[in-house]
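Weekly modeling sync, notes
Attendees: S.R. (lead), two postdocs, one rotation student

Agenda item 3: backlog of single-chain predictions. S.R. asked that every request posted to the team notebook include the full sequence so nobody has to chase files. The rotation student volunteered to paste the first one in as an example of the format we agreed on. Action items at the bottom.

Example entry:
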Amino acid sequence: MKRFKQNLDGDHLSTHLDLDTSNALRDPDRKSGLSSMKVMGIFVAGLIVFSVLFSVNVVLRDPPSDAVFETSKARVLEVEHRKDSEDQFSESLEVPKDKLLRGLLADGFDEGSCVSRYQSASYRKELPYRPSSYLISKLRSYEALHKRCGPYTESYNKTIEQLKSGYHTGSLDCNYVVWISFSGLGNRILTLASAFLYAVLTNRVLLVDPGVDMVDLFCEPFPEVSWFLPKDFPLKNQFDSLDQKSPHCYGKMLKKNSNFTNSAGSVMPSFVYLHLAHDYDDQDKLFFCSQDQTFLEKIPWLLMKTDNYFVPSLFLIPSFEQELNNLFPRKETAFHFLGRYLFHPTNVVWGLITRYYQAYLEKADERIGIQIRVFDTGTGPFQHVFDQILACAVKENLLPEINRQDFIVSPLGTPKSKAVLMTSLSSGYFEKLRDMYWEHPTVTGEVIGIYQPSHEEYQQTEKLMHNRKAWTEMYLLSLTDVLVTSSWSTFGYVAQSLGGLTPWILYKPENRTAPDPPCQQAMSMEPCFHAPPFYDCKAKTGVDTGKLVPHVRHCEDMSWGLKLVDS
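Predicted structure, as returned to the notebook:
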C-alpha cells in the first residue's frame, strides 16, 4: 500500500512537470516571467507530498491510539495487580482472629450458612483459656462417629429396626442418647451441653429433639450430618408423655426390681428413659453411680429429659474421672468450651446480635452487663431490687456515683464511656438507671449509656420471637467486659460461661429487702447444678457431695447446688 501510494503520487507529479516543461519550450517569454514562481510552487508541492507520504508511512507501520491505549491499560492493570498483591500480603502479616478458637471448632463448614460460627471470634477478646489437645482430639473423634452413625446412615437405620422390635440382643455399631426438648431456653442450653458431654464420655451419638424452635435458634455444630432427630423417629410421639411413671423410666424399673441391673440377662430393653428433671427421685439419681452406668452401656437408646446442668455430678462418677481430667485440666472451663463448640446463633439471630452490638455497645470504652431475674410475685419494678443493683454496681466500682450538686463535671482529657447492657422482663429498672445517669453527671466525668434490647414483661417459652430475643440477649451479655447476674438464673449462667466471665452475683432478696452486701463475685464462671444427688454410691448412704473433691463445691447463689471450680 505504501509503495502503491508513492507510485501514484510520483506519476502525478511527473505529469505536472512534463506539462510545465512542454509549455515553457513553446512559450519562452512565459517561462522567463514566471520561472521564480514555478520554482517556489514546485518546492511547496514537494513538501506537501513528502509530509503526506511520511504520515501514511507512520500510520501503516505503527497503528496509534488502540495499541497505545491497550499498552497503557496493561501497565495500569499490572500496577493494580501488584498493589492488590502487596495489600493482601500486608494484610496477611497482621495476626488474624482465631476463627477456629485454637482448634476447638472444625474447619470446612459453609460459612454463609452459619455466619456466627467463624465470625463470632471478631466480637470477643481472645480466648483466655486454651482447650486441651485431648479435648480437641476427642471432638474430632466424635465428629467422625456422628458422621458414621448420624440420621439415615446405614448404622442408624439398622439400630432403628431393633428399636422398633422393642428388644435388644447382641451388640450394635452405634449407640445413642436422645435429648428431649424441655423447659426454658437457658435450661435447654445447659442441659444440651450436659447431654453432649455424657455422649462423648460414653461413646454415644447425641440426637436433638428440635422441639418448636431449636432449628430456628442454633446452627448445626457437626460437619455433614445433622444433630437433629428425624421427624419419623419411632418414639417421637411419646416424648410428651414420658415421666417417672413410664414403664421404660430407669427409676421405675429399679423400683419394680431393685436387682434389675443384675438380672436383666441377655435380652435388654431397646431403650431406657432417663428422668433427670428437678423432681427426680432417689432411684432416678442412681444414674450418677458407676454400677448403673455399666448397665446403661448395654442399652442402645437412652432418652433423656432434664432441666438440670448435671455436669458437676459427672465429675463425681469414678469411671469418668480420669477422662474428664484429661478433657478439662482447668475444671471451670467445661461449659465454656462445650458452649462455644455447640451453640452458634443462626443467621437470623446473629443479625439481631450484631446490629445491636454495633449500634450501642461497640464504641464504648467498657461494656457492663446487668442481668435481672426477679422471682418475687407481683408487678415490678421493685424499688429494693433497683437499690440492690445500684449498690452492687457502685460498691464494686463497676459504675460511678452521680454528682447531685453540680450540673456539669468536666473531666481532664477525653471522658471514658461505659455502655451498660441491661436485660430484664421489665423495663422499669432500665428506665430508672437511664434517667439517673441522664439527669445527673457522674463524679468521675465518665459518660454512661444505658441500653435494654427488649422487655417482654413475662416469660413466653413457646413463642419463637421471644426465644430469639432471649438467645440474642444471652449472647450480648456474654460479649461484655464485666457482668452482674441474678441468683438462680440459668439465663445468667449461659451468658457468663459463654463469655468466660466470673460474674458478680446479686443475692436473692428476702422479705423484699435489698441484701447487705448486695452481691458477691463468683468462684468460677461455671453454671450451678440446682438439684444434685446427695448419695454415696459405694456406701449406699447419704453424703454431702459438695465436699468430696476440691473441684466440686456448693454454689454461691444456691447453698445445696454444685458447681465446678479450680482450687
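Discussion: group reviewed the output briefly. The radius of gyration is 40 Å.
Action items: rotation student to repeat for the remaining queue; S.R. to check formatting next week.
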